[in-house]
Amino acid sequence: LSCTCNNGSAQASELTCCGRIGRRRIEPEVTVIEITDDADALRSASEVSDAWMKHTQCTQRELSILTRPPVFKPEPRTRKFASICEDRMVGVGFFDPLCFEHPEEGYVYQIIRERPEAPDGTRTHLLLHVADLLRDESVKLLSLGLAPLSLQTMEPFLHSAWTRRLLKFSQQLPWYNFA
User: Fold this and answer.
1) How far apart are CA 106 and CA 119, in angstroms?
2) Do 10 and 143 form a contact (C-beta atoms < 8 A)?
3) Are 19 and 25 in contact (CB under 8 A)?
4) Burial label, 147 (beta-carbon count in 10 A; 0-12, 13-18, 19+)
């Protein structure tokens, strides 16, 4: 399994740092489960998303410019996971297939949400758990999509100056859910 950031690979130092943070013991303990076809769990995932929206958003309306809106019902080939802490769902992550006909080719990290009171490291822990699971399933690629914008900017920047300004601006807006 390889991880990519948009058009290139993540730098080893970023993945190592991510691994250190996500694999340290989170107190209290957080476990990750798949909830793809579980209607009750998907309702709880919607509650996590609502809590995230209330804490993060400036308005009640969700903007979906950089990512698709979350769907809290089963979707073909989309994998959905939840972080559970003390019998309560505290985070969710949705992974869309890169190719619907061949999901074993890879997934893109599409939606990530957590409750404001979730333990530090919950989102990273969920991502690393799913990456391990997909690797064990022989999935070839896990794209981090726009998630790397939350990391330090990688040099050299391979796109136009306009794109760079747009991405820097995007990181500061409340609808960028990886900040």
Assistant:
1) 29
2) no
3) no
4) buried
Q: Which two tokens stand for residue 78?
A: 């989309």
**Phi and psi, residue 136, nearest 5°:** -65, -25
Mean pLDDT (the chain) is 75
Task: Determine which of 89-93, 135-139, 170-174 has the lowest per-residue pLDDT on average.
Answer: 170-174
Which of 2-6, 102-106, 145-149 tops mean pLDDT? 102-106
Asked if the model's pLDDT at residue 11 lies above 50, the reply is: no
- Give tens-digit pLDDT for 94-139: 999 888 788 788 898 888 899 999 998 898 899 999 999 999 999 9
Ramachandran sector of residue 121 (left: φ over 0; alpha: ψ -120 to 50; beta: rest): left
Token pair in block for residue 157: 């920047």
CA distance 111 to 68: 8
Bridge partners, residue 112, by sequence: 93
Indicate whether this model's pTM tops 0.90.
Answer: no
Query: Is the distance from CB of 126 to CB of 81 less than 8 angstroms?
Result: yes
Range list of β-strands (E), the chain: 2-5, 8-9, 30-34, 79-85, 88-97, 107-114, 141-143
